[in-house]
Predict the 3D structure of the following.
Amino acid sequence: MPRMLDVSDAVRAEIGDEEADRLLAGENAPGSYDCTSCRTPGDSEQERTSTVLFVGDETAVLAFAHAGCLPSQVVQVTEEQLQGAVRSIGGTGGDFAAPAEPRKAVPEQAVLGVTSGLVLIEGELHPALVVEPTSPIVRPGTTGPGDDFLPLLVEQGYLPVAGLSSVPPVLHGWSVLLAMGQLHAVLQPGPGGGQPVAWWQAHQPLHVTDGWRAAANKHQQVLLYAAPVGSIGRQPREDLLRLSLDKAAAEGRLVAAALPLAGT
């Protein structure tokens, strides 16, 4: 039976026309599946379904997602990421505040620490990522003391926040890639308006809790809060993280934006 599958041009180019046509005809596509983004059941015979191709260094894995969660696309990952993500299918989310290790250096000498957690705003839980470098970040091409982390983000469209009483505005062009039920990257606009590129990318996909993932799929966006080194620290519980965020905001050391889920 034909499937309600979306096969993007990029996926078709990777798997070939013959395989793509077989998928659309229902020969190689499953009827029921677990969405690679929200991890809830889907049915390609009853609802629009995206084909998502994860491409590693040596192998590739074709996965399926609700069209409302992810578009059909090719996701480039390392072989280690791919194998880890495959092993994680069917597993539950990890503990709160699990860091991604090692973390991407942005710019060259600065290392970004990323923590996931739920933030309560106006009586509703929102998924959040808190980003804090492990050392001061200076503007590219400059040297010496100083920390330009927040000014650089403000130039990208992030806004200073005085508190966590309201949801920050959406920053279009940026997005959060949540795939195979795990956090893979924060994407920023590519040079000259090209394809998005990774601003931060997890070397190993970051486990998130079921509650965080459910909130992300409900709101179709993730709140990103960023603060300079020494502002937040490693907090083992969400209540302590919230206190640190409130303190950083009160001190004028916090910027934020709402980032759509990638492709939504």
Residues 5-88 form one domain.
